[in-house]
Design goal:
250 residues; mainly alpha; Heme Oxygenase, Chain A; 11 helices; 71% helix; 0% strand; Polyketide-peptide_reg; Haem_Oase-like_multi-hlx; Thiaminase-2/PQQC; Thiaminase-2/PQQC domain-containing protein
């Protein structure tokens, strides 16, 4: 039987390819990305972490750890206290980890190659992504299905994307970074390492297990889960695009 995550990964392979094999990742992996473009991406990802934490907060606030804490109207027939606590534990880890990453981004932006660039603030597509996350967290079913799919999808994309960048980095010819600023090169290496650690892979796998535990017997519900998955892929592509330029609604 095909799992839900396998099904989702099969429905829009072209968009998934774009989200995990983007030019930004190619340039980071080959250490050829310009400092201003990496600065732009880091700045937006730091801005995005604020929305991520709000999404996690909304999801956590909706988790009923025990049966007597379930909201009025919660008719999820698959509710299980132990599973709810598993979800809570995963979300708590996500919050802790994104706080660490927010601090990491602040440190990276203070480094010599990037500190001199003007601060651009949150770009429109970053804001749109943040709004999307919060909307999904608020409107997801009582099992948090749509929100769990979004969480898994964006983390799965990040894992595969940075593994792709790492594969390019590992195939680089020794010394081929040329005259690149050593701090800039070290920053690219640090970013690649951060999202290819075994701990991160384990987290992504756990998110996948939570998604696979969702019921998909209702075709309308399955359609809803598919929709937020597709939207996440589209937004991830736009997010990489923003490293180079402003993106439009095309």
């Amino acid at each position: 039987m095909v799992s839900l995550t396998q099904h989702l990964l099969s429905i829009d392979k072209e968009a998934y390819e774009k989200a995990t094999r983007h030019t930004f990742l190619q340039q980071v992996g080959s250490h050829t990305i310009a400092p201003q473009h990496l600065h732009s991406w880091i700045e937006q990802d730091r801005a995005y972490t604020n929305g991520y934490t709000k999404m996690m907060g909304l999801m956590i606030s909706r988790v009923a750890l025990f049966p007597d804490q379930r909201e009025w109207g919660d008719n999820d027939p698959h509710y299980d206290s132990a599973h709810a606590q598993r979800i809570f534990k995963t979300l708590a880890f996500a919050v802790s980890n994104v706080f660490r990453e927010c601090q990491m981004f602040t440190d990276l932006l203070s480094r010599t190659p990037y500190a001199g660039f003007p601060q651009g603030g949150m770009k429109p597509w970053t804001s749109r992504y943040v709004d999307f996350h919060q909307k999904v967290a608020r409107t997801a079913g009582y099992d948090l299905g749509e929100a769990l799919v979004v969480l898994w999808a964006m983390e799965k994309v990040f894992l595969e994307a940075w593994l792709y960048a790492k594969s390019i980095q590992e195939n680089k010819t020794a010394g081929s970074s040329g005259e690149q600023d050593p701090v800039h090169v070290a920053t690219m290496q640090e970013l690649i390492q951060n999202w290819t650690l075994d701990e991160f892979k384990d987290f992504v796998d756990e998110c996948g297990e939570l998604v696979n535990a969702l019921s998909t017997t209702d075709p309308l519900r399955l359609k809803s889960l598919e929709q937020v998955y597709r939207q996440t892929l589209a937004l991830e592509v736009k997010f990489w695009d923003m490293a180079f330029t402003e993106v439009t609604d095309e």
